[in-house]
Amino acid sequence: MEPEGEVLNPSPFPGQIKFGCGKLLVTGQWHHLTVTVAKEAKKSCIMAAYINGQMLGSAKMQYLQPLPGGCISMDPSSFIDVYGYIATPRIWKQKSSLTWRLGPTYLFEEAISVETIEVITKLGPQYCSNFQAVQLQGEDQCSDRIIAPLVAEDRISFGINAVCSSLTTVQDIKSSYNEVDGRLIAKEIGINSRDSSTPIFLAKNIAGHLSGSLRTIGSVAVGQHGVRVFQSSPAATSLNFIGGPAILLGLIAMARDDHTMYAAVKVLNSILSSSPLSGKLMRHIHGYQLLSYLLKKKTQLLNNRILQLMFSLVGTAELGFESSVIKNYSAFQYVLCNFELWMKAPENLDLILLSHLAEILQSSRDAGQNIAIAYQVQMVPKLVFLFNDPEISSSKITVACTILSHLLQGYFNTRDVLRWRDRIGLFLVYTLKPSSVDENQFYLDSVAERPTE
């Protein structure tokens, strides 16, 4: 990128392009920005931009020059030192109220695919590595599946992360790396090239040890131009070091009204959905059993919004839009399948829950996996146990029988039938009319009440 007026290269393609993204930006939240450049013939390229994995647009423009300025000779003695800005260069600086933060930054020597962009976006700003063995939240960490690198080692030019950084000086940079880098850094910051006292923040190139050609040493923060250094630490990650999910369970225990209960459950759902470590801590402290106990103690505060958060926690909330596979086994086993908890809740939450379970067990795409999980958590005996309630409505019985039908069709086991035959028998006996009722007369009356055609 060159200042306007310095290099005049007549070309039918523009030297810069703009994409509108105002509607996708939210103040105070991290956004993942990706720019890909695919070279074409005739000194042109296709540039595409993505925000949080969503494509903003693509356009054809002039391809970047191999070397800046008018240097086109391949003689090694004519090479010039090259460095770049991840910000606005001083020559183009203007006063602005915009304040922004830069998280982990990478430069690849190839245009990555949309699928790779989606995976990198899901890793979030706390990821600190080189995409050689990536596993996302919810994947089996102990599986024998061979994990292919997202980007080849030799195609990663540099990676910058504040986690891998240190305070150094110009003299230390010269002795540890090379004279040229030390001189360029001193010139940019505006200090003497022999300075050995001014602290310099150096974010080292985390890809420097990978195989491939020589790489840059990293980047430095130019402090006098308004740059401040920080390490990105999302709230979900920070919470794990001061108590983790146990603190949020405490908030649920202290809830006195439905608004406070909803807020506490929503925060817990957000933390568990965004932090794999929080999920591990939740299982370690048997947090889902505790959550079920707390919700049972505060049944009168439950409502449909809280039930929807439980669906989201399990991973089955977005039916028809995303995969409805049960992702959180523990939450499904100890919270959703605790029917005693939901049978006493207001707003007919038990019927809503049973209808939701029937939907995820009969979805054409993920039904098999969900039925297997439901069978493992002993849903069959839990459903049969519901029939002991003399006040159970016919609508609930119908939905429960539908769920039982799907489960027994997928995993029919005679031992289950024999084990629960007494309860099923008692339920069938309960549906019979008392001995004081004449069954023949009852049948004749029902026939007489039928409308004639």
UniProtKB/TrEMBL annotation:
Q: Where are the transmembrane segments?
A: none
Alphabetically, which GO biological process terms does the record hold? antigen processing and presentation
**Annotated ranges, domain DUF4704:** 239-380
- Which key words tag this protein in UniProt? WD repeat
Return the SUPFAM superfamilies for the record: Concanavalin A-like lectins/glucanases (SSF49899)
Keyword Magnesium found:
no
PANTHER family in the record, alphabetically? Answer: BLUE CHEESE, WD REPEAT- AND FYVE DOMAIN-CONTAINING PROTEIN 4
Q: What is this protein called?
A: DUF4704 domain-containing protein
